[in-house]
Structure formats: C-alpha cells, structure tokens
Design a protein that fits this description.
Blueprint lengths: L9 H11 L3 E2 L1 E6 L5 E6 L2 E6 L2 E8 L8 H9 L1 E5 L6 H7 L9 H4 L4 E2 L8 E2 L4 E13 L2 E13 L19 E3 L5 E3 L9 H7 L10
Length: about 210
C-alpha cells in the first residue's frame, strides 16, 4: 500500500507513523507551574538527540481546543524540565499521570509516586524512576499545533543497581524500560540480544547468530 501524506487526513498520518515507528521510548516529564504545583505527563514522541551537546527532544501537541498543555506552558515559562524513563514497576502510575487533570492537581502525588528535589532544576525528580535527566531548554520550535522542545541534559540520576560495578555499563537484566508500540500497546525490554559490529564480523567471516525471540 502507498499513502500520499499530502492527501491523507491528520488522524491517518498519526496512526501510520505511530503504528510503524516503534517501539518509542516513553518520557515521563515533570515540570512545576508558577504557583509551585508539580506536574507530570508521559509522552512517546521523545528520544535522545545528541550526546555532544547532550540533547533530548520532546514532541507535544496542544489540547483539542488549541490551548497549551500544562507541560508545554510550564516549560515555556521556566525553561526547564525533568525526563524520567519508565519501567514495569511504575508503568501503571505513568498511565495515571496522562489523565487530563486540572492544572492545580499534582499528578505525581495523585499517581502514588514520590517527588524528590532535583539537583540543578526546580522541577522535581520522581524517586521511583530508574533514570532521570534534568534538562534546560535549548530551543523550542512551533509547527502549528505541535511544539518541539530540545532540552540539554544538565544532570542525570541512575539507580545504582541499573549499572555495573564500575558504573560504566547498564545491566540489561535490571534496567528494562518499557516503550510504546501503537494505540494502547507497549513493550518491555526484557528480551535483549547482542549484534556484533560489522568490523568484528569481517574478522570472523561469520554471520551473526540471532537468538530465538519470544
């Protein structure tokens, strides 16, 4: 099938892109409003963008009535936010934070999660997350109803057991983030395997042995 995006309705473009570009990592983003109220919201239009400088990118849409969501409004005002990775231990709580609450509701508290002070930004860190990245806004781009936020990572927290003894590499048997597929379907990184770099394959002259996936 071929799809002409110039002719395709917006909902169909979203369906195709989000169904086939995946799994997409989930950013559970915390901000703080002008009254000091915590805000948390998940988003799956998210990824790491660069390591030098260390940049993350978020894609957020306005509400159906055209008004900005709390996360976007708070980021524009404060110029900072915290991105948390999500594992199975907090998957249900992450979904709860996605409810369209009034702006004065603390989604972290409502979801049963614990807020703790960040190091370099005012927005709180969620204690239960295996990984959190404190970010300052580098650039904000507006495309109609879509806001693209590029944030520079200023500080990163990783739960101790997620790293090896040297604090250098992730332990895949411990750190197993979830990601979004399509609609309400998610996947967990609990079936990881190794593919060697092509240079190593040239030395052995053997094709990689792929595992039997579940």
């Amino acid at each position: 099938m071929d799809f002409d995006f110039a002719e395709l309705p917006e909902n169909d473009r979203y369906r195709l892109l989000s169904n086939f570009v995946g799994p997409r990592p989930i950013a559970l983003v915390t901000t703080i409003d002008e009254h000091g109220c915590n805000n948390a919201a998940p988003m799956s239009f998210f990824n790491v963008f660069s390591h030098e400088p260390p940049l993350l990118i978020l894609g957020m849409e306005t509400r159906p009535d055209g008004t900005a969501k709390d996360t976007v409004a708070n980021i524009r005002r404060s110029g900072e936010f915290v991105v948390h990775m999500v594992d199975m231990a907090i998957a249900s709580e992450m979904i709860v934070t996605g409810i369209n609450f009034p702006s004065d509701v603390d989604e972290i508290e409502f979801a049963g999660l614990t807020s703790t002070p960040s190091v370099k930004v005012a927005a709180p860190r969620i204690e239960e997350s295996p990984c959190a990245m404190e970010c300052k806004v580098s650039q904000i781009l507006d495309y109609g109803r879509r806001t693209i936020v590029i944030g520079e990572v200023m500080q990163m927290y990783v739960r101790d057991e997620c790293m090896d003894e040297r604090g250098r590499y992730v332990r895949p048997e411990v750190y197993q983030p979830i990601a979004r597929m399509h609609a309400d379907n998610y996947i967990v990184a609990d079936n990881q395997f190794v593919l060697k770099h092509p240079a190593e394959l040239l030395i052995t002259r053997k094709p990689p042995a792929l595992p039997q996936l579940k």
